[in-house]
Design brief:
2 domains; 4-stranded parallel β-sheet; TIM Barrel; homodimer; 6-stranded antiparallel β-sheet; about 30% helix; about 280 residues; Lyase, Ornithine Decarboxylase, Chain A, domain 1
């Protein structure tokens, strides 16, 4: 919760239902999404502790604005400042008789430093389970290689191969969220092939040898595709995927992409498959 | 289908299953996604007609690259050229004994001209049922007001109101696809309020009076939010939405946004509600 009205309504709802709701006070340390400013935490924590029907459980500070900062020194510096502020706050709350049982926050992009900081006792990292292009490219906060492997891929089927520049697969806007980086082609097409959505149900897989032709064309993308097809001096790439081939894509941003699927197909170590339903798919709406 | 291999595999599959599959030949008139060039249509149509297990049903040409062209003269000109080519092709196919029963294509962005052209006998318009920001802004091809009203909205709940510049609602990247224009705020917030995603489960609803403050800040968006909060000369907007209020959003691009939901809540003319499942949600994957 991040305001008094929420605390009061939740307390009333808990009392009406004859139950107890455990609550953490949400703190804004710079993401500016939800959360109270640090100097107002104690007041809201006290209100929570004193409201019948509620149990004051602690504090939460998700530092969303820091997770993907590419400059590692900047990411570390911002996190160090936030951790210092949070540490002081934990002390202030303790002195006021409001010691937080739970100090929850952190994420995949900062988890080593979150742990080393010694303030959080719960880390909210989730993307590390599967990873994605965004986290792979921004790197681990300690500057070392990620200890997490890419573990989730989209199996796109090639459905049309009518152009020299690209083949078309069935993984478009309904199969991959485009809020983050584009999906990365990791197998099933020549090294360096690029995925680009071509509508709701389709995407192009551009051949790496054709990127120069397309870039030279600038805005007239469609014209460049036609020109390449009609130019006898440009051969059809022999190693392009064929209709029915699977092209494996690494998602750009894992969370909203998983949200597009009802189930994950999981490969066991023994080579068997299991289907895991995505239970939480609708829970955030 | 758009190549001989597909036609042969579909024929074999139909024969193996003891059934007949009706097939249209897909034509590329500039979208460069799927489809054969016009000059190859007759060959593929003949192969389809002669393949046991298949029934040659006609031709399809979806002009995806034309639907949203904002310059109406350019949209009309491109469509006229495509229609002329398609019309000639229908004649050629007829002369070759391959007259297409079905000539399918067209869309919301061109439907009046699609009909007037007299070539299509099936129009693939779908977005017109609900409309969206993208189609509203690009306008009808005849230059008149759309005869279709906006008919689908996202009900976002305000969950946090800690900043002068914006409130935060629960409709983020998992509730609205961001491949197209941002969602438009149509009710529940002051006129001119702007929706911007703030992660997987959240979005900001920026107050119209605060857009100047934010624009002046340039890249330091977070700093501008803090500065406004701390500047006593900037009042808290009295008409900002409150926690629990519903803000109504018009989707930017309807197709991949509907794909995020399992059901639509439909308001009957008598004021009652019905829940319509989104049956096709997974069918394109």
């Amino acid at each position: 919760a991040d305001d008094a009205g929420q605390v009061e309504r939740l307390g009333a709802a808990a009392r009406a239902a004859g139950t107890i709701i455990g609550l953490v006070v949400d703190i804004d340390l710079g993401t500016h999404r939800t959360g109270v400013p640090p100097e107002q935490v104690a007041t809201l924590a006290r209100l929570t502790a004193e409201t019948p029907g509620l149990e004051y459980r602690g504090i939460q500070a998700y530092l969303g604005h820091i997770q993907h900062v590419a400059d590692l020194d900047a990411r570390r510096g911002a996190l160090a400042a936030a951790t210092q502020r949070l540490s002081a706050l934990v002390g202030e709350l303790g002195a006021a008789g409001l010691a937080p049982q739970l100090v929850t926050g952190g994420g995949t992009g900062t988890y080593q430093q979150d742990l080393a900081g010694g303030v959080f006792n719960e880390i909210q990292a989730g993307s590390y389970v599967f990873m994605d292009v965004e986290y792979e490219d921004c790197g681990a906060v300690d500057g070392q290689a990620w200890p997490f492997e890419q573990a989730l891929f989209i199996a796109a089927s090639v459905v049309s191969t009518r152009h020299k520049t690209h083949v078309v697969c069935d993984a478009g806007l309904k199969a991959h969220s485009v809020d983050g980086p584009p999906a990365r082609v990791v197998a099933g097409a020549p090294q360096g092939a690029r995925w680009r959505p071509m509508g709701d149900e389709h995407a192009a897989i551009f051949h790496p040898q054709m990127m120069g032709v397309l870039k030279a064309a600038g805005a007239d993308f469609a014209g460049a595709i036609t020109a390449a097809d009609e130019d006898a001096a440009i051969p059809w790439p022999a190693d392009a995927p064929k209709v029915g081939d699977i092209v494996w894509l690494q998602p750009g941003h894992i969370d909203p992409t998983i949200n597009l699927y009802d189930a994950l197909l999981v490969v066991d170590e023994d080579g068997g498959f299991e289907t895991w339903p995505v239970d939480a798919r609708r829970s955030s709406r």
